[in-house]
Amino acid sequence: MHAAVALALLALAAPAPQAASARPAGAQLSEDERAFCASEVEVLERRQKLFESQGLSSAEIALKNEGATRDLAECRTRFKEEKRRDAEVEADTQEAARRAGPDATPLERDKAWREVRRERLASKSPSTLTPEEKAELEEGMQEEMKATHQAQDAAHQRDPAFLRVLHSAIACYQGERRTSLKEAIASEESHLKLGSGNRQRLYTLKSELHATEEVLARNVDAAKSIPNGLEKCTTPTVRVVAHCLGTERAEPACASEDVQQYVRVVK
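Predicted structure:
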């Protein structure tokens, strides 16, 4: 019992070991880390020397340096992230060159690079992406979607069933628009006769009617080669597409790809 107490007293009397967090900027840092986190290292080392000169214990110094130590740790994390991203970019550059081939044009190399980067960023959790990477991924996804839509639209131009719905919807939408414009023109002309109309509005309405009639005429010519002619305006798909051609609002019924594939061709 007396021996145990004596050992405990000796342990308490012995100098406390230097806290590991008190001097994290020394041998723990590589030269590259030191250069990257130069300001954080300088602050921590200056504080370390000041507190040591005041005769503070290692525990007290570590406590006072908690903020500066945390800043340095965060800087080291940023350094590691940048090194990791640099390695990814290098790997992506090599993969893009491999995909494009040695005889690729600058345009082909750029396309391969964007493809590789899109795959890389899409494989990561969105929460780990930097704002720049999120923007890069969004741009890449938009390019991919645009290319997909272009391929779909080209195929649709050769699809009689697709063209039948498309031209039917155009005929229905523009037909209703023509009727509405004629009614508005008649109303405005009546008001003008009574001295309360708007002549400029009347000119605008007539111009819009002329444009609508031109679209209808072109649509009739384009639909001549469609087997079985145009569908009725009451056909469900035609009715929805015709409605969506005339609205600018974000409606759920118009948001689906089944409808947008028709709207894209027209707009």
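Summary: Residues 156-266 form one domain.
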